[in-house]
Amino acid sequence: MKLTDSEILKALPALGVELVAGASLAERTSLGIGGTTDLLLIRRHSALPELISLLRNAGVAYRFIGGGTNVLVRDGELPWVVLHLARQQPEVRLEGNFAYIDAAADLGRTVTFCAKHDLGGMEGLIGVPGTIGGALRMNAGAYGTQIGSYVREVELYRAADARIETLRGNAINFEYRHTSFAPDDIMLAVKLELPSKPFREILNGIRICNEKRRASQPLNQKSAGCIFKNPPGGSAGRMIDELGLKGFSVGDARVSDRHANFFVNAGHASSADMLALIGTVRDRVRSAYGVDLENEVILWTQ
Ligand code: EPU
Fold first, then answer.
1. pTM for the whole structure
2. Read out DSSP for 183-211?
3. Ligand 1 environment, Cβ below 6 A
């Protein structure tokens, strides 16, 4: 979508918002799939309420993207503009066992930064790609760790109230890959409380998780991590594998040979290819196991 509303275009410089015309979402997502649209790069969190109110008043549809590591975006000219937070400096500030982290900060780099200051707990999250904001929204987890356990406060743009608010950690529900944030809330910053641990011990935990991940996940291929959530008590990856679907493809969208719940873009997969692959695998699992797999990846295909 091309942003043409002159009132909005005129307001952007004073709000510190940069317009990136015709941005490619294929270049901004880990799957490497997605069409083009105007992107608004937000440099100051405080600009969000006014920016969103301008967009709403002008009837301009918008969506927010973080690291783009857990989303499947449709192809072609997209029918909405995309908002994106610029990285802030500093991204992390430490105060005792508390870490104040900007939502645009990279999750992996943040885990390492805290480790260097003898703050641990998040070792399992080391290889999870994406931003702190995305990790919060999805309650990212791996190897027995989930980020929600450490959250003490979240600063966010609360869509329902159209303003920036701070929520206490105990007012937020963090469940398996699900949180009580509204779909159009935008994460801005978080306060985590992390346990003290010597750097060497944390580093050892990080190494173990990295090795496990390298052994079981296709890290050098374009993917959005796991496509489906695990059903209660089960494993989506194991079920898909047992059905012999590793390597099964639609166009260049392919079930990974390494981990059957990772679907990779093996070349120039279209959004429709990936969607068809997801649909076919879900149908096969439903017929064989009577289990209706729920997407873990967020679909921006409508
Ligand atoms: N398995 C197979 N074949 C496969 C893949 C897995 O038989 O192709 C078996 C494994 O041998 C194992 C079981 O299935 O016995 C579980 O596999 P794994 O340990 O790889 O974990 P997972 O349940 O598939 C979850 C998360 C991952 C996270 C890992 C490690 C979900 C949907 N997936 O995977 O998160 O990295 O545990 O903690 O919860 C993600 O969220 O995108 C993601 C990749």
1. 0.97
2. TT-EEEEEEEE--B--HHHHHHHHHHHHH
3. 142-143, 216, 225-226, 229-230, 235-238, 241, 259-261, 296
